[in-house]
Amino acid sequence: MTDRNMGLDFFRQKLRWSHLETVFWLLWVAAFFVPNANHPLLAQVLIWGLFALSLDLLLGYRGIASLGHAAFFGMGAYSAGFLAKYGWGDPTLGLLCAGLLAGLVGLLVGRLVRGISGVALLMITLGLNMLLYDLVLRATDITGGDDGLQGIEVAPVLGQFKFDMFGHTAYIYTLLVVFVLFLLVRALVNSAWGLALMGVRDNPRRMLMLGAPVGTNLTLVFGISAAMAGVAGALMTQTTQFVSPEIMTFQRSADLLVILVIGGRAMLYGGFVGALVFTVLRDQLAILNPIYWYFWIGLLLVLIVTFFPSGILPGCQAGWRRWRARRGGDA
């Protein structure tokens, strides 16, 4: 077998779907038919999962930490909100414009932060987030300030399917969009480009010596990550038909990091697992204790880091491998 054929076979193996992956997405489809299912909450889980996946491209696969990813989420949310308010309420158009705007800004930021790492990079991303948040908060005549953007009217999906009060249309719409973007990310990270990203993450000097375009890849992954976050923000606006400055606070960026810590980084599905645990627990804990619910989230985070240092998904994966190894030894 030639080197080329060996390489093609390697990538075919990486792109092959496992049974667990198929079951994961079939469960989301099955959830639509569950009687009395909380479809609005499940749609929020999917949106947060997509948002976490966008950050995972930076943090998990490229090793770039960001404290300002909520800025791109907010750009997408307000883009879709303004379009819907001023007569361009087509959901697909809103997603495209939101992703394009956030992606272009992400490319600019990616170009700006080339050669910057560590605390300096964290401060730059945090500073950009705070600047945008303050701008949106103070421009009350345009954004509505703390009261949020009013008059958002999203048109039916494909001109046929209206957003209903039970969240059925919003759930299916969100699931389809998230799945399509997931397929894109899955193909990217399992390609030669994805391997190059992880190579720079693990050993940047060696990748430079091999001639890899490290700076270009950094800019590109920042743009793709920002575009995905923008689409996630647009989905949030379209499914709730509301957006306020709260959507781009530092708290949102912090929540996103918590979700990745819970689920696990560089796992594709880690963001979705973390989003499911975080969102459902937040919803239930807020009902039980509306004031101090975040205390229990903090306690959960401490326990997860203690027992699953790499996150729930990597911890379960490692446990499964150990169990199989012991089983093989016993045999």
How would you summarize what this structure contains?
By secondary structure, the chain is mainly alpha-helical. The chain contains 15 helices and no strands.
Characterize the structure shown.
With 331 residues, the protein is mostly helical. The protein contains 15 helices and no strands. The protein has helices at 3-15, 19-31, 39-59, 70-85, 91-112, 118-138, 140-143, 168-189, 192-202, 204-209, 214-240, 250-263, 270-288, 293-307, 312-330.
What secondary-structure arrangement, pairings included, does this model have?
Blueprint lengths: L2 H13 L3 H13 L7 H21 L10 H16 L5 H22 L5 H21 L1 H4 L24 H22 L2 H11 L1 H6 L4 H27 L9 H14 L6 H19 L4 H15 L4 H19 L1
Helix pairs in contact: 3-8, 3-11, 3-12, 3-13, 4-5, 4-11, 5-11, 8-11, 12-13, 13-14
Task: Note the beta-strand portion.
Answer: under 5%
Q: Could you tell me the number of beta strands?
A: 0
What can be said about the biggest beta sheet?
none
Broad shape: globular
Helix-strand pattern, N to C? Answer: HHHHHHHHHHHHHHH
Which spans of ≥5 residues are poorly predicted at pLDDT below 50?
A: none
User: Helicity, in percent?
Assistant: over 70%
Structural class, from helix and strand content? mainly alpha
The number of helical runs is 15
Ends: how far apart? 34 Å
Average pLDDT level: 87
Rg, nearest Å: 20 Å
